[in-house]
Amino acid sequence: MDGRLAQWDRAFQAEVRSFLAEKLTPDIRARAARQTGVAAERELGIWWHRTLFERGWIAPAWPVEHGGTGWNAMQRHIFEEECASANAPQLFLGGLQLCGPVIMRFGAPEQKAFFLPKILSGEHYWCQGFSEPGSGSDLASLTTRAVQDGENYVVTGSKIWTTHAHNANWIFMLVRTSTEGRQQAGISFLLSPMDAPGIEVRPIISMSGEHEVNQVFFDGLRVPVANRVGEENQGWAIAKYLLEFERGGSYAAVARALLRDTLIAAQTSDPVDGTRLWDDQSFRRRYAEMDIEITAQSWTEKRVISSLSAGENVGDMMASILKVRGSEVQQAAGELAMRALGELAIPDQRRALSPGSDAPPIGPDFALRHTARFLNDRARSIYGGSNEIQRNIIARSVAGG
Ligand SMILES: Cc1cc2nc3c(=O)[nH]c(=O)nc-3n(C[C@H](O)[C@H](O)[C@H](O)COP(=O)(O)OP(=O)(O)OC[C@H]3O[C@@H](n4cnc5c(N)ncnc54)[C@H](O)[C@@H]3O)c2cc1C
User: Fold this and answer.
1) Ligand 1 atom nearest 38 alpha carbon
2) Pocket of ligand 1 from Cβ distances under 6 Å
3) I need a surface site. Which of 76, 232, 353, 355 has the fewest CB within 10 A?
4) What residue intervals traverse the membrane (predicted)?
5) Helices (DSSP H) in 122-250: which residue ranges?
């Protein structure tokens, strides 16, 4: 693979940059810079979703017939990198990245016609109801029960760690429709509006102080049988298909943005004694190592993209390698940022970070979000299938290959 951008890719990059420069006003960038979790605050995220939708750029990974952009894999990668570099608001991708592809592949024609346009336009905001208090890595052991009663399933049970359930207006979920045979053979995939009677969302506040995840309770929730995707008891195959998408992503660009802030912090003189961390050789060495790790991750991502562009099958193992290394590189970049911040990492910035707040940040702007982000990023090696589980996949692939 030739890593230099071809001329037409450079023209595309320039087009994306000019769009981002026009739409991302200083005010929008300042709001987006306060994001510490996986996605922007709800209003900002919805605004950015609609802006991209109006430009026709909301679903780069979707087939053109369903509203995709028709970009090749390298153009998609460029778009993601440019958005990350410009600090664009990050979208919550429950609909676009997870539920949408499932409906395209397994949905009935009426489901495609109803749901896909609403995912594209942003009218539907989806959350993912897979994990349960006793079923995370061992997802097939899930016990949330759905019993058919006429034209409906009656759902009882609970989901946990449901990201943005408090923002979402729809949930896709795995439920147990049979206890016969293998656990995997008794699971179905259902879709429900979040305002249906029988759903309760309770917040879980994470160690970064944010409300990002929830526990969701179902008590006699009625889901029309027409909202089941695929056949009854065939939900496991759908879940496996969906989880492949969850491991994708552009990790290097996010880590690179963190490294930029780290450089600013390290080159800023201490107001008391005038020293700069940048003058410490051991820090500069760690910075250089981090730079190299991020560059290696970026090349690995580009290599995968290049294979995909050439129509090659990347495979389960590669998706797992990207997830393990990508999350580790992001976490390491976060640790270095914390080191560069020093005591500026200590103040509780939650008031200044909350959407709409006019509380001034403590210290310079670059110090505002890193501690919350660092704490939040600890979860990157857990969600989307923990890194230990990814290593098992890699080990099995190596042993099998
Ligand atoms: C911030 C955050 C957001 C999330 N968002 C969502 C969401 O929106 N929707 C959703 O459905 N879920 C979500 N999850 C849940 C996530 O997918 C699970 O937490 C994850 O799959 C791990 O499951 P668990 O928490 O039950 O841990 P467990 O499965 O109990 O694992 C505990 C530890 O044991 C290790 N372990 C388990 N099995 C093995 C094994 N076979 N080999 C080696 N090590 C093993 C794990 O790696 C982990 O370190 C989220 C989680 C977090 C932290």
Assistant:
1) 1
2) 128-131, 136-137, 161-163, 213, 379, 382-383, 385-386, 388-389, 392
3) 355
4) none
5) 235-246
